[in-house]
Each structure stands twice: as structure tokens, then as C-alpha cells.
């Protein structure tokens, strides 16, 4: 079971290599770039941050410390914006 889940008011549309997010609270659509998509999928599909980062490292080339910082910032933003929450189950 993953550590986080998407809140009910967030709707995801994934088609080919593009991912859109609708925040139904305000009707605003967001487009996630490829790096954000990789992080989004890791956050929602892995059981903890360590496993999420391993999944990201397999798909993204770059400095691991920088990737880790970007991951933490992205996850914090998702939580603060109310897109995701800790899985209660």
C-alpha cells in the first residue's frame, strides 16, 4: 500500500505521454511535465519515500541529492495544495 493517496477533488487524466490534473475545488487544470509525472507516480505507487526515490532514480539521470530535494519539495507542494494526503488505511 502506498503512503499517499489522491484527494477526492483531484481528477487525473493521462493520455499517451501527457498528464493533466483538475482541481475540482476551483476548476483549474494543470499540466505535469515528465519529471513531475515520474515523481507523482512514485509518490502514489510506492510504499515509502525510500522506495519512491529508488523508482525515480531508475528513470531520471542526475545528481541524487538534487533529485531528492526536488522530490521533497514537490511532495510538500502536493500536500500543501491539498492534492494528496497520507493514506489512512
From TrEMBL:
InterPro entries: PQQD. It comes from the Bacteria. It comes from Seinonella peptonophila. Pfam families: PqqD. This is Coenzyme PQQ synthesis protein D (PqqD).
Amino acid at each position: 500500500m502506498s503512503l499517499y493517496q489522491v484527494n477526492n477533488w483531484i481528477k487525473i487524466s493521462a493520455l499517451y505521454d501527457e498528464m493533466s490534473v483538475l482541481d475540482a475545488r476551483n476548476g483549474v487544470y494543470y499540466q505535469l511535465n515528465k519529471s513531475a509525472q515520474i515523481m507523482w507516480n512514485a509518490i502514489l505507487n510506492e510504499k515509502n519515500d525510500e522506495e519512491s526515490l529508488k523508482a525515480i532514480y531508475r528513470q531520471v539521470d542526475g545528481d541524487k541529492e538534487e533529485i531528492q530535494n526536488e522530490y521533497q519539495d514537490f511532495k510538500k507542494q502536493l500536500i500543501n495544495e491539498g492534492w494528496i494526503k497520507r493514506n489512512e488505511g
